[in-house]
Every structure is written in structure tokens, then in C-alpha cells.
Amino acid sequence: MLDRERRFENLDPLITVILPVYKVEAYLPRCMDGVLAQTYRNLEILLVDDGSPDRCPAICDGYAAADERVRVIHQENAGLSGARNAGIDAAAGEYLIFIDSDDYVTEDFVERLYQALADTGSDLSMCKWKYVKGEAVPDEEHDTGHVTTYSGREMMGNLYIHDGAYYVVAWNKLYKRSLFEGLRFPAGRIHEDEATTYKIYDRIEKAAVVDACLYGYFIGNDSITRGQFSRKRLDWAWAVRERLTFLEERKDKYWDILPAAWKALADGCIDLYFKCVRYLPDSREDQELLRSYVREALTGSRPYGGLPARTAAGYRLFLMMPGLYRRLMKY
Question: For the chain, which domains are there?
Fold first, then answer.
């Protein structure tokens, strides 16, 4: 049973919660009220005002005036990566947590992640999340609350399983701060999680995964990380290709993961290709680069056992006749 009163919070390590803030004045109070209500009390809460043009700077300052655990960083707009990096640089805590400021968490989010990490001697812990539209984070009936541990190598492989999105994102996790020594999110890019999380997994010995939904990923129309398709969405492909290079440079360690890594790259590039065709008519060069990654997957996967025959045949059809491929995939 978790100690909800945290009577001995002075013995608990300091955990820094980093919230990038930009154009979320309608949602920031909801997020912050949930953070301040955490059952784990020994928190440093860093609000990184990323040059927000609305009332967010004043809202941030109001929370700092009301609770000594809250600190505010006001900076010129640097994007989500730049805001997170500013928080990492300023953090005093032994552990770090990232929360997007239009999302929200359960009141025991921090405590359960810390307890899982501490009980298992892990370097990182994480939980499940659900899409939400403002309602309470759902208590999933199939969630057991059990904690499972994985090696760093196994966590790398989990990036490519059916529920891989749980493992990719930065914000459902508690990290030892030391994991970010010499490592930051890539400035000026989106899909920054895809470009960073795998490097964390390469550094860890053990991770703890809590089978419980403790984080709500808000999908309102004007939430900060969601929007219409644009060329910036192609940052996903560049990040995943960089990850593949990283894995190949360490292929003795990740040999059996590489076929799935090549397939994930090709599948994602095919999806992005058709989005470019639909939404970005002036993106011919980008389309050709995405196609080249699919072509590369056919040959690049061979040293590791290759792709399933049906998958490889589908990729070849896509490369020859993308329109026919798309029609067939609909059926």
C-alpha cells in the first residue's frame, strides 16, 4: 500500500517535474493543479515559459508565488525540445519527469513511478497512458498495477512492439537525472522523443514498467503538440533513420532487433509518402527520399535475416506502383 500522506517526505529524493509552456492558458491550470496535488510531495516543478504570447507567463508566475516548489523560466521561443532542455539544465532534482502542459496525470503518478523505480533498483520507470479529452485519466479494467522489469536492450526492442508508443514518448517516465549527462533533445525538431529515448535505453541497466494508466494525453483541437500535417512531420523519418544507424553501429548488441527496425522505418515512410502526396504537392524531393528509405529497407535488412516475403513483395509493389499498392492495401 502506498503511503499517501508521505509523512517522511524529507527523506524522499527531490524529483524535478519539467513542464514546457506555450499557448496553453486554457489547460495549464488543469495540468498544474494535478501536479501540485501529487501524493509524492518532494518536488521541484519547473515551468518553462517558452515565449508564450498569451496569459501563460502570468499564470506561471502566479503558481510560483503560491507554492515554493514552483520555479519559472521565461525564455524566447525555442520549441518543445528547447524548453525541455532548459528544464534539464536548470533542474536540481535527482530524478526528472516531463509533462506536457496541456496533458494531465493521476494524483499518484509520481509516487507510483518512484516506488517502482526504487523497489526494483531501476534507472528509469514508466507507465501506460490514454488519449483523453478532458475527462479523468481512465482506470483501465485490465490494468493489473504489476511492475515488470526489462533490461535496456529489451527496452530498445520494445520500441518495435505493438504497444511501442508507450516506450517512445518522453513524458510517461521517471528518469535518473544522470541519464541526460551529455544528452539533450534535438533543437528545432519535432518527434524529439523518437530522436532521444533510444539513446536513454542504450545507457540503462534496468527499467521498471508499471501496468497502470497514470497519464492522460490530451487531444483537444488546439493542444500544443498536435496539428495539421506539415513538412515538420517528416522529422519522424529522419529520427528513425538516425536510430537505425545507431543500432547498426552496435549491431553485436542489437542484431535481432534490426529486422523490426528496418520494417518500422519502411512502414512509417510509406505512410508519410502518401500524406506528402495528399497534403504537400511541392514535396517531390521529400517523397523520393522517403521512397529511398523503403528501398534501403529491402537490402539493409538482409544481413539480419531479411524481411518476411509478403512484406518485401509489398514494398517492391509500392516502389513500382504506389497507387496500386495503396488501392490493394485498402482491401
Answer: 9-218 (3.90.550.10), 231-330 (no CATH)
